[in-house]
Design brief:
heterodimer, A: mainly beta, Porin, eight-stranded antiparallel beta barrel, two-stranded antiparallel ribbon, 1 helix, 11 strands, about 10% helix, elongated, B: alpha/beta, Rossmann fold, nine-stranded mixed β-sheet, 16 helices, 9 strands, globular
């Protein structure tokens, strides 16, 4: 089910690529709960629908460290809209889905082995499903290929987690360059 | 050039915020016990070199051991002893994805057994005092009274602990219904207080998982002064939210409480022989005072080795509400039996 969803979105991403007008590359700070630091790289395919509106497919690859909780590595695909204003400011919104790989972070994970001895084990958790909702605002500097800066609050869910989904809050801010 | 400068300033602001130090990331050791799908955090803080450990068992079920860590009482005790804060499965900051069929008293007892073994193994057999609050008092009792588990423990501290469901819900009922007429005589919230009487008429034998008795009792709690307690136990919530192990799991982790309906740990209580300290709030609405006498009487520990301390003008959580007296009682007991 999880793999099917990811493949579906990857295919949609490729489809979007075939109609794209611009290819953008971004890099930024990823702060889980704002201050648990990380990095995120974005590859965007942007199709201009009018002078003001563009549709986007974006693939994010990132990592962050929530000390004494977990280290996260994620890849997720997003689809959304960006609305430009004459001043250069823009707003955007996305729905996304991907995979979050997490590692328990601290001074070790211990479990009983088959002989009943407590031993240190791998800190790798599980590959979890990661749906998300992202809003954003930014500014496009002048020039056809001028860079853009963005600020993107994001809510993503980690599931399954204690029979439910665990919501995470994050902010992202960074720069996007137009490649072609 | 200007753009680069703006970006550099933004990066510096974020970088400095993310790199700010926090004692929540530095103090003590923070590790995990993985068992039957649950990955339970264990935080060991304080004076480890004392070789005297207080292993805390939180209440709920479903609360968090990390809450103890935030109270003035345990912060004070950390100056002399090591304190172990453990979050049970489906509780607090516990991680993993255990199956619902692991929600049972026996599973919680097994988890506690492994926590004790892990502490003994990792810190070379320290002297352990086990402390259980509310549901933790029941869980600690259930573990201590089985097999030879109590041989691993120096002393048992039961803080307003829950061990015998049917007696406790009746005690809460009595405590509540004794006070409702005075509330009705005040003439305020008559609809609510009449509903309390009506609810008990329709539910004469409530069980542990029923929420109403605890809502009613809390509404009658006259000793809880939130503002004063917040002043006593000062917590920097911003730092806690932004620079600590805390996550939204604290709010989203939930478990079905029906597994504790009908608990009866009297056999285990009678099996306990180690030194024991019973600490209770005189005005506890959740587990009223007569249960302190019941606990003291039923414990198998000989009278010379058990003690009961009642905190006047105190509700369900003496460690939070009466930190000075609580610490004094703890210190006296630990120093006597360590």
């Amino acid at each position: 089910m999880r793999s099917t969803a990811i493949v579906f979105f990857m295919l949609a991403f490729v489809w979007q690529a075939s109609a794209q007008k611009k290819l953008n590359l971004g890099i930024g700070y990823f702060g889980q709960t704002f201050t648990h630091p990380g990095l995120v790289a974005n590859l965007e395919l942007e199709k201009q629908q009018s002078t003001k509106v563009a549709t986007l497919g974006r693939l994010d690859l990132g990592t962050y460290l929530h000390q004494r909780n977990h280290l996260g590595v994620f890849v997720d695909a997003h689809f959304g809209l960006r609305r430009y204003r004459k001043s250069g400011f823009f707003t955007e919104q996305y729905l996304g889905i991907g995979t979050l790989l997490s590692f328990y972070e601290g001074d070790g994970v211990f479990a009983k082995d088959e002989n009943g001895k407590l031993r240190r084990i791998s800190s790798f958790a599980n590959p979890d499903l990661m749906p998300s909702v992202t809003l954003g605002a930014g500014y496009k500097f002048k020039g056809e290929q001028g860079p853009m800066i963005y600020f993107r609050p994001k809510v993503y869910w980690q599931l399954p987690y204690n029979n439910l989904a665990l919501p995470h809050l994050a902010v992202q801010t960074g720069v996007v360059w137009n490649l072609r | 050039m200007k753009n680069t400068f703006i970006l550099l300033v933004l990066a510096l602001i974020l970088g400095s915020s993310a790199c700010e130090k926090s004692e929540y990331f530095e103090d003590g050791e923070y590790f995990y016990l993985k068992n039957k799908g649950a990955v339970m955090p264990i935080w060991v803080k304080g004076k480890v070199q004392s070789k005297v450990f207080i292993l805390t068992i939180h209440g709920g079920p479903g609360a968090s051991g990390h809450e103890f860590m935030l109270s003035k009482s345990f912060q004070t005790l950390e100056q002399d002893y090591a304190v172990v804060y453990w979050d049970q499965r489906f509780s607090g900051l516990s991680q993993g994805d255990p199956k619902n069929n692991t929600i049972s008293v026996n599973q919680f007892v097994e988890d506690l057994d492994q926590v004790v073994d892990l502490i003994r193994q990792r810190y070379q057999d320290p002297k352990i005092f086990l402390l259980g609050h509310s549901w933790g008092g029941g869980l600690g009792t259930a573990w201590l009274g089985r097999g030879n588990n109590q041989s691993k423990i120096q002393g048992w501290i039961d803080v307003d602990g829950s061990k015998y469901d049917s007696l406790e819900v009746q005690a809460v009922k009595t405590w509540t219904l004794e006070r409702v007429p005075a509330k009705i005589a005040e003439g305020k919230d008559l609809k609510f207080w009449n509903y309390v009487i009506e609810w008990y008429q329709q539910n004469p034998n409530p069980v542990y998982a029923d929420k109403e008795p605890y809502i009613f009792a809390e509404a009658l709690n006259t000793v809880f002064d939130g503002a004063a307690l917040a002043d006593t136990n000062q917590i920097n919530y911003t730092k806690l939210f932004l620079k600590s192990p805390f996550s939204l799991a604290y709010f989203t982790n939930k478990l079905d409480l029906s597994f504790v309906n009908g608990i009866d740990f009297r056999p285990e209580m009678r099996n306990i022989r180690i030194p024991s300290l019973v600490l209770w709030g005189a005005d506890d609405p959740t587990l009223p005072l007569p249960l302190a006498d019941f606990t003291y009487r039923t414990l198998g520990t000989e009278p010379a080795k058990k003690q009961k301390v009642i905190f006047p003008n105190c509700g369900h959580s003496p460690h939070y509400e009466k930190p000075t007296a609580f610490v004094a009682s703890m210190r006296g007991f630990i120093e006597q039996w360590k």
